[in-house]
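Input chain follows. Return structure tokens only.
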Amino acid sequence: MTIGGCPVKRSDRVRSLIVWGAVTGLAAGCVSSSPDSAHRPARSTAGSGAAPAAILGATGTGAFPSLMVEPQDGMTPIYNLMSSARRSLDMTMYELADSTAQQILIADHQRGVRVRVLLDKDYHGGSVNQTAYSALSSGGVQVAWANGSEIFHQKTITVDDTVSAIMTGNLTSRYYSTTRDFAVVDTEASDVTGIESVFATDWSGAAPSPGPGGGDLVWSPGSEPELVSLIDSAHRSLVTENEEMDSSGIENALESDARRGVQVTVIMTSNSEWDSALSSLEAAGVHVVQYPDASSALYIHAKVIDADGSRAFIGSENYSTASLDYNRELGLITSSSAVLGRLDTTLAGDITGAQTSSTPPASSGTSPASASPSP
């Protein structure tokens, strides 16, 4: 099929450039070039409980899941998480272009950790990830290409079967300092077990299929109904950040919210591809704020939904048919106050910092990101 005049597989419009949240004691990376990067300006060890302890020190809370925010937190927290592995580290990554992350993976392997890294190969993944693939393979790390029938856009790191970092961003170091991304560090046993179960299937070379239902996790293919349901659940406010706006189901849900009086705000980086969709959202009463696509501006790569300040989605899913219906993606829906408090504050700041804004809805009384949770 052709998208934007370019031949692509049905499985993606995903744009890659990214960075994502990290805690002051973990680390991660991101990758370069992808369908969207063509237009984007360049921009010690403890015991088995070390990973959660490092996260606690970084976030300042004793609760999990915990939220990491990029670029504020830096990538050291994710690096620390990776280095804390004692038995195993499993990674699924859309793009890996971070030499520090690669060195940590090799060092983990050399001290006896079972390290498995699954990299995307579809579309441009084979070329973008080839350097990392070769380096890891030469270093003895178990590294494999994901099934090439669809894009594996998931960004997840699981350590010792006890803690998983679910990220909106890749491991591409060139974008770390300029990109808005988030990561949730999750120690819920059922979530970690579900992530590892799907990893085992994907590691076998199978094409992506819907993940296990129920619980907190949101898997693609097949994530649109859960995201639409979350949007529909808003009573007072709905704030969302995303890199793309090319899903009629998501767009209709956002417009429906606005028409029934929910204060809806969409935060994005400006891109002419989404102008028509954004105009329709504005006509329905959605408040759209945009950052310029310039090297001096924050780049909105995050994929989050904040409903009433009481429930939030954070994950890898873009608002596109490919991402929601075909790709391998993973996100999380949470009501954790540890996550929502910081997410609300960050989104409120992103709304204020945007340089292009539509007129807020007439009903607007407070910042959507700081609105009180519904009863």
